[in-house]
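User: Okay, second chain of the day. Same drill as before: sequence in, structure tokens out.
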Amino acid sequence: MKKTLLFIILIYYIIPVFCFAQNQNREYQDLGQAFGYLNGQEITLAKIEKEFPSLGNDIKLAKIEFGLSFGNAEKNIENNLKDLLGDQFEEYKSNLLEQTENMLSSQEITEELAIDFINKVKRRSDGEIESPVLETLLIYQYSDFPVSEFNDGYAITYSTQNHQKSKGLDIRIKIPESWKNEEADRPNIVQKFISKNGTGKEIIQIIVKEIPTNDYQFTKSDIDEFYSGEMMKEMLPDESKFIEAKKIVLDNNSGGQIIFEQNIQRLDILVKTKAVEYSTIIDNKMILLQCTVSSVDDENLDSRFEKYFPLFKQVANSLVFMNQY
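Assistant: Same drill. Structure tokens below.
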């Protein structure tokens, strides 16, 4: 049955191609919204401290707590806007601050409202922030170490239960909160998750494929043998560059991990990709978790892949196959 497995897997190495220009516009909008949010918070706290000096210590504590949670995000968001806007940044910031101050100057703040806002800032330190501002803050707070977002508890659980492409499997998986989930157009891709709230160049896909076996039920030894040999290497498309493969365990099931590179030509665009794929077989269905970094320029894919690889491992380790329990 190994040849049947090989044929099925060969046609499901699906690498996504992104619309980079459109995503860059979205990214700019999200940056601007988060930047305005942060500056609005800072101006409001300054106004409260001026009108209610007795609340100064509470304000300092709220600022410290927020800085510990999102201090990196504040700096990185401003730096990225500077890169995007260039010489226009200072004018942009000045106009934003002026508009915010004008809006606040017309609002009366009572001591009760002031205390409520200070407490709200403290809750924001724990992640109680509106979307998409929270996602943007998480992106830039953990931009250097993406796995830390996951490890710090900013993750959501996704279930494939009742999804028409899941072939009856209920797969649970944890995904970083700043990644956006989307339905996929292609068959057998149950769900895809895109970094930077849908604007990034990294993607995670859940793929489920029925393996036609003429009523043959794969045994544990069949699956162990498949993932122990050279079959994982052989199943890559010819145009792919094999890097490494090894046997692993996914939620008590024998499985495999394979790393490869692939270049994809779309019209006049050459997309370079590097991916790690985790797979196993349950109830004669191939389950694949494909994690990819992509680029359309000369960016070093190896360094980007190494940055995201610890996160990919954590996501794969969160897989739970509910049908077996």
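The chain is about 45% helix and 25% strand.

User: Thanks, on to the next one.
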